[in-house]
Amino acid sequence: MKNHRNLRCFLPALLAFAALCLIPSVARAIPSYARQTGLLCSACHTEFPILTPLGREFKLTGYTMSSNQSDLPPIAFMLQPSFTHTNANQPGGAAPHFGPNSNFAFTQASAFYGGRLFGPYAERLFGSSAAGVLNKIGVFGQMTFDGVARRLSWDNMEIRYADTGTLFGQPVNFGFYANNNPGFQDLWNSTSAFGFPFSGSGLAPTPAAGTLIEGALAQQVVGLGGYMRIAQSIYIDIAGYHTLDTRFQEAMGVNPGGETQIPGVAPYWRVAYTKSKENQSFEIGLYGLIASTYPGRVNLAGEDHITDLGLDAQYQVALGKHDVTGLFSVIREWEKWSASQKLGNTSNSSDGLWSWKVAVDYLYDKTYGGAIGYFLVDGDHDPLLYPNTPSGSPASDGITLQLNWLPWNKSGGPSFWPKSNVKFSVQYVIYNRFDGTSRHASDNNTLYLESWIAF
Question: Within a 13 Å sphere around the CA of 120, how many CA atoms are in the beta-carbon half?
């Protein structure tokens, strides 16, 4: 009898660990969160996936806030049909199985598991005592079919435990997490994992250069970390990331060929100051990543050393029917090519890279919106590092314009599957420079039409 009681106590912990290992995860706003809380999507988002103060609180507390009114399982789905047109045709086709221009695509289809680890069922399955612990564990999970690459894979994944306490007499929110994308855990849309533009075409040319922290490691790594928010104003986050085994990546639908490998642990850190007052909120912060890497997973010539340092800020205000969000980020990357130069991958022994982004997003009456953003990437000339550019320069900059219509954002969607949402978008990307030159840069200008359907 004693053994049975011990097994009953151990089983929830065992299942939680299994969920950490097996549940894939998520990239975007998902209706299962709205069903869990009983709130409309517009309570936690302006134009999704931009978070409101309540949405940031929901993420901070581990996706576990609940009204306990829904018995629906914590699952959701997303479809993204799209159309892409570029100013100039792309010789040989925009991608395998696609024409040189004016392509329709089923950009992606996703299935989500998100919210409390065991949804509304923890108490029924394990009793009230165990549920008190398990309901502090939340997940954010997505499995995606990429209609351009024609591949099924896991997407961003996170599981976290969140709780509250006090420190030096001040209230503290704290938690621990595991995820597969540095910065995915962040609360603001000014950082890389959730920055503007929130979606884009997979069938259009994009600049050759990008910093390591801006998604280059997504789905290739696993990270463990912890965070705290002190007195509702100081946010601190520390984590470490390591590249996953090639066999595991392949099993999850990721092609590890040619990727940058972190053989040890790369520290990630984040500090931010945030302030909310009435209908306004403000944040300013720093974040960074330090990685010793094998280029292309080749370990024959030593290691490269890459350091990213980012500065970001976000301002958000709600004025009646008007929601405005301003976003800013700048990232400086220092690259020491101790291994890459020996392997003939770079001309220089070291390089530097800058990435700037600024955007303003506006939503009227939770339904009609628009956004404008400026982006720039620039750095040292390196012909071997950027072999397909005219002069070995990474310089690209331009403007992104977008119009949005969210017809269900206030109503909550159809009654048979409540809290569903849809966003119709028209996006136009204008390039001033592309890969180091302004000549023919406008050939890469892109018109992108998208339906973002979440249910």
Answer: 16
DSSP state at residue 54: H
**How far is Cα 159 from Cα 140, in angstroms, rounded to an integer?**
6
* Separation between Cα atoms, residue 369 and residue 363, nearest integer Å: 4
Q: What is the spatial distance between Cα 270 and Cα 359, in angstroms, rounded to a whole number?
A: 21
Res 417: pLDDT: 66
In total, how many domains does the chain have? 1
Half-sphere exposure of 98 (CA within 13 A, CB side): 25
- Length of the chain equals 455
Residue ranges in the chain modelled with pLDDT below 50: 1-27
- CA–CA separation, 175 vs 172, rounded Å? 10
Write down the pLDDT at residue 455: 87
CB atoms within 10 A of CB 442: 15
CA atoms within 13 A on the CB side of 317: 4
The CATH number that applies at residue 327 is: 2.40.160.10
Q: Note down the domain range covering 417.
A: 2-454
